[in-house]
Structures are given as C-alpha cells and as structure tokens.
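Whether sequence alone determines local backbone shape is best considered at the level of individual chains. We regard such an encoding as a compact summary of how the chain folds. The sequence in question and its structure tokens are set out directly beneath this paragraph.
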Amino acid sequence: MFQRVLLVDAGSGFYKTKKYGFDRYFGPVDLGMHMAEKYRSLNFGVGPFAGSILPGSNRLVVTGFSPCWQGNYISSMGGAGLVFNNLGINMLSLVGRAPSPSVLVLNRNHGEEIEVDLVPVDAQGIWRTGRTGVYSLTDRVYEQFGGRYANDPRILVTGPAALHTDMGGIMSVPINKGKISYVDTWAGRGGFGSALVQNHGIVAIIYGGTLVEEDFRDRKVADEWFQNKYNQRLMKKDLEVTSKYRFDEKFDTGGTFGVNYASVGGRVMAFNYRSNAWREEERLALHRDFIVAHYLKQFNDETIKPRQQATCGEPCVAVCKKMHGIYKKDYEPYQTLGPLCGIFDQRAAEKLNHHCDAMGFDAISGGGVLAWLMDLLDEKVLSPQELGVTRMPRWQVQGFDLEQDSAHNAELGCELIDAILEKRGILDFREGVRKWSRIHSRRKGTALHDRLVYTAHNRRGWMVPNQYWVAGVLAPMAIMGKYYMIYSFDFVPPRTLGRMCAERMKKELLLDNLGTCRFHRGWAEEMLPEVMGSLYDSKERFLRAVDVLASRISSRNSPIFWESERNVDYLLSFLKRKLEVDKVDDPRLAEWLDKFAADKYEAAREFWYQMLMGIDESLREFF
C-alpha cells in the first residue's frame, strides 16, 4: 500500500507524481505535515478508506502553514474526499504562486493521467456578481469548466476574505446530477483560504474523475467486525452513535444547533461573553426567553419538524446538515454570529451568517471578531467612524426586541464585514487582529484586545476558541480552534486537564489521519485501528505513528500566555460557576478560587503553565 501525491507548481504549471509507502506515512495528516515541511506546500488529501463503505470516511483534509495561527495546522471538510478519490491520488500538494488569480482544474477522464490546467480568472469581479462571493465563484467555475467532466465534479472556492485577511476559509458544496446544492461545507479554521489565495494565487480548484478504485466494499466483513466488537451491525452502531447529529429524542431536536442550544442552560454565552459575568438566574432567563422560546423554537419549527436535512455529499445516516431554504444551521457559526453578537432571531442570524459565508470568512473567527468590534463600539472605546460603520450595537438586555434589535445588530455585523474587506477607517486585518490591536492599542492608550477572547500562538497567531464555556478551549495546545482538546464541563485540575487534552489530540489525529468525520467517533476511534490491522496489517504501526505525529506537532508549539483580560475572566467565571452553581465539592477548586481572589493574573498564569506541563509531559514519543 502506498499513497500517491500530485505535486503542482502553480507558478510554472509543472506537475509530477510522487509515491509514499505505509512504512512512514499513513494518511493526509502525517504525509501532509511532511510535504509542508519539505516543500512549504499547501496540501489537500484523503484517508485510506475514502470511497469505502465505512461511514464518514470521505473528509478532505487540508494541511500546511496557517496564516491565522502562524503555525502548522489541520483543517477538513465533509464529503469532498469522495469525488477527490476519483482522481486516483491521495493528495494534492501546491507549491509556487500563479502570476494572477487562477482556477486549478484537475480531471482524470478514462485514462492514466490527470489533466492539470491553470486558468486565470477575474476573481474580484466574479465575487461582486450574482450570488456574490464564494457562491458566485462556484457558479462561474462550474459554468466554465463543468462540461469537461464525465461525472459530477467538486469545487473548492475562496472569497474576498482570503485576499484581504488571514482568516479566509475554503468552501465547497456537493453537486448532484449537475445541480449545485446549498449544503456548503467548510475547511474554515486556520485561514487556509487565505493561504491558497495569497501564497499560491489559486482562488478555486475544480476536480473530478472516472477512476473506480478497489476500495473496501465488503459489507459482510464489516458487519462481522462490528458484530464481534459491539454485537451490532455496522449501520445499526453508526445510527446509535450519530443520534445527536440526526435527532436526539432526549431534547426533541437534532443537529449541533438544536442539541447544544437545548441543553446549554446557564452556560449560554452572549454579547461577547459579557454573560459569563452575569448571575446564573440572568443567564437562565436569557436562555429561556431569548433562545428556547424564540431562537431554538424557530429552528425546531422550520428545520427539525419538516426534516430539512442533508449530508455533506457522502452517504451518511447522520444527516447532520440542518437546512432552512438556502441556509445551513450549525451551532458554532450561529453562536458566534448569533448570541455572541447580540442576535437571537433566525432571520437576522441567517442574514449575517450568509454574508459572512459569502465573503469567505471562517465563520467562528469572523463571528468572534465582529462581537469584539461591537463590544468596543458599545463601550465607546472606538467610534463608528473609526470602524467605517453607520450604527451602534443594541446590546441592552432590558427591553431587547428579539426581532428588531437582532436585525439591527445583524445589519451592523454586515457593515463591519464590508468595512474589514474595504479597509474602512482604521480597519486593516491583513496581518491579523493581534498585530492590528497592538498598533491601535498604543494609539488609543488602552489594550483593545482585552475584550477579545482568543488563544495566541507565536508572534502573530490567534484563534477564536470553540464555543463552549469550559477551560479546555483556552488550553495552550499546538493546534487550537479544533477539538484537539477536552471540552468537558467538569472541573479538572489544570495539569490533569493538559494531559487529557494531549490524549484527546491523539484520538482526533487518529480520525483526521484516516480522513474520517469525528461525528462517527463513537465507534471509529476503537474500530478503525482494528480495520487498519485487518486490511493492511498495520494496527500497531499506525497507532505508534499517531503518537509520534502528535508529539512532533507539539514540538513546534509556540503558545503565548493569555494576553486578554477577558480570557482570564472567562476561566475565572467558569471556576466560580462550578462552585456556586454546580456545587462542586473539591478542595482543589476552592484552592484555585482562593488564588484567583489573591491575584487573578498570577493565578491564571499558574493555571496556564500547569496545563502546558501536562500537555508537554504527555507528548514525548518522537521515534
């Protein structure tokens, strides 16, 4: 067994194929990291089970140097690996830079060779027409090149955010029988859209082929594996572990949006995390009146009850893509571009999410930044003129009109997105928000980033955390913004928490390196190493390679202690809530709260360093 890599120089158009055996590299992460370090390439790859009957095995995994995180990073999108597999390669590695914005066309049509073509396009002109942004570019690329393909191709596209910021994502939608769907999937985290456009001059990639490989298709054998392990067939076990993403009877809703908002209760976060400092009864009232009675109710009535759901493009029982017309509803984008920005109405959230997506932003980072800018406006630290907008946020909870005030805040969010892209006022995020904040904090005489919740990495790297009020989302891991950490709601002492994050990173890398969706982790983490053993006689070597991979990624970790006061308050409020609301009776929790009462910054620094110690001592397998 070996992996084929198509290495394309975007500057010259030259390309070649390289082969790598299973003796060192097993999937798109460990091989992608090798390619990135050797060639400074941006890599798109699939796992060894792409095209097989194993559910969730068709993720397209992107690896390389992240302009946003300023370090090695891993991002992925669902379903896009299914069509990629028809090229007969495991990975595309891009080097060099096209002289003008271009589309990369890859096609394998009834032959041994892949046709490689680089075609210049007027990306900025296309982004301004039709459905705008990534959606217009998808339409234009398919219109121009779709006729070349015998089967439905897949298209990866970027938007204006990739050109003007470091947080541009990569978007793709399934195409079925010539029809472009509305089910957009994203490799958003890490700003790889920005890397694709700014470092390689590629604004879109269209690919497809006719190759039919001998992928694993023996359902009888798979059922036997699962019967031996779980006393269940493959499909029954998969139905069981993906219930949250399909429909969870405990909460009478489904999908990440439905289940998370139904269960969040007093852990709800709103108005740029200001709610973390509220009393529990105030948060519960907001959850009851703003979310359950309106925001979640709209979702359940419009999406869950009529079963408006789809997949990412591969056959999958999870049907995790919850839809309302052209809008896809996921928890984290509709959280950062929803309650975090003072928006609690689906129409308003749809407007802001759609504009953010169309412009090609990573919606989680984009939403965190918009909430921060709104906070600065509301506190009158910055003026509308400085940010190039015409209005102030409406963030007063008392008398808040769920529809009108949400719509007002969504309009402000859209104005801020346009102001960022057009560099209005003092806005210029080309080198990231941390550097921008350093420059303007000196000018304003106050630390603007004290109101931004983010993890810092290296000199300029930053990442808006996952939207769970837990300590783990601020851990000093080598890769943050993904689930390479523990997002447990329990109180865990920091050094133990660091160790648990390290172990979680290994589990997530196991899935990513096999191109498998984490929504199937309930069986995949246990079974896939067994499958590697059965099919390739490499279970132990594979597991060892994952341990080494995690340690090597961690060896390049450049974490920065929390620069933002709101990060410190985020952790402190979490710890206080564990004591005051959850009534956790643990002397270690009381000890930490005493330390915070004496000096919150010194206590936060000690907590942070103990997490780092736990991480570092757990990731030591280098050979």
About this structure: The first strand starts at residue 2 and ends at 9. The longest helix spans residues 280-304. The mean pLDDT is 97.
